[in-house]
Amino acid sequence: MDSNVTTGVAAGSADESVLAGAYAKAVWRILPLLLIVYGLGYIDRLNVSFAQLSMKEKLGFSDAIYGLGAGIFFISYFIFEIPSNLILARFGARKTISWIMALWGFASMATALITTPMQFYAIRFLLGIFEAGVWPGIVLYLGYWFPASRKGATLALLLTSGLVASMISGPLSGWILQSWDGVEGLANWQWLFILEGIPSVAFAFITYFMLTDRPNDAKWLTAAEQQAMNKKLADDEAIKAANAAMAGKSIFLDPLVYVLGFGIFGVLCGYYAVTFWTPTIIKATGVTNMFYVGLYAVIPNVVAMAAMVLNARHSDKTLERGWHFAIPLTLSALGLALSAMQPDSLLFSILALSLALAGVMGAFPTFWAIATTYLPAPVAAVGVALINTVGATGGFVSPYVVGAIKTNTGSLLYAFIPILAVMVLASITTLVFVPKGVLRRSA
Q1: Stretch 247-273: mean pLDDT, rounded?
Q2: Domain presence at residue 4
Q3: Pick from 324, 359, 366: which is nearest to 339 by CA?
Q4: What is the rounded distance in angstroms from the CA atom of residue 358 to the CA atom of residue 335?
Q5: Is the pTM above the cut of 0.90?
Q6: Which bin fits 371, alpha (ψ -120 to 50), beta or left (φ > 0)?
Q7: Does 104 map to a domain?
Q8: Longest pairwise C-alpha distance within the chain
């Protein structure tokens, strides 16, 4: 009997060792590619926040036009998320992601051609179509490789690419706006879209040849490593099936999916309130040099990166998700309110923006750890896209509402109030309605 126990322990240790080696390989082979993909998409989606500092004046656009144009991206994003994820599930991440990367890169560059509000709205709508599959596709794709116990930290690491991209694109965008005006007869904001769209097109080809769809397709894994990863994922699916209320019925009829959708809606309302208006808030403190506007915008991203990773790691360690989601999101709402209260103080504004961005980014990966813990494999492709589709409306509502209220009242604080309320309500509903077995796992 002792011999059998010893053998079982040794076998278990050997399996864990194989699994650890497999995950280490997967992290180094997959995540660097996804980091770049997500980072480039982030730049091409949000560089309008810097371009508008010059574009609004030169094209005669109001804050309301800018807010609607920034937000209309998410209408097409909303419509095409589920189709895009179904395409990825059918044809694989390698083909799907590489194609949409090239298309959104061209759409971003084409923004340099706009001259009217309607053209601005049209190109943002087109950009939303192509980027619709990026984040939900990546979340779905990671589910083919990593179990729930590793999901929080993995997503947090991935989301750091957006923050790193912001650290690069902020000063870069500021430098382009400051130095490229009139080069070859083009305005500085036109050069911004052109220069920042080219890398997405170029990297699309690298993604096509280097991304691996699933563990069984990975020639860089041994047969034992492939088997260990597949077994771990199968065990994870059994736990998800036990938690899933949608078993045996359409996912579209499951109310919890819409509760989760409202949770990410609150996150995205806050996130885009911060990101789309950070350059405006910094400029309002008296910073006139565009390069320095971009440089100061880096600071909140550095703080947010540290907060996000620490919160996600602690959540993975404790397997507690609910409070690791609700507390950061509520603190973000506080920071957002404070950022609009002292428009003349650069230091105060930077500190408030840091709290706002750190909180919302801390909540982001923890939310997706909650959502993917709930969704079993048979409905994961549609489920992830449906939740993100509901949430993505926050990307339209936030900039549109803030832009419209600011145009009519002249106050960014008044414009932020509806956003703050939604963020706090999203925290409460997630804690109250999501099952405890999903918010806190015992193993």
Answers
A1: 83
A2: no
A3: 359
A4: 9
A5: no
A6: alpha
A7: yes
A8: 84
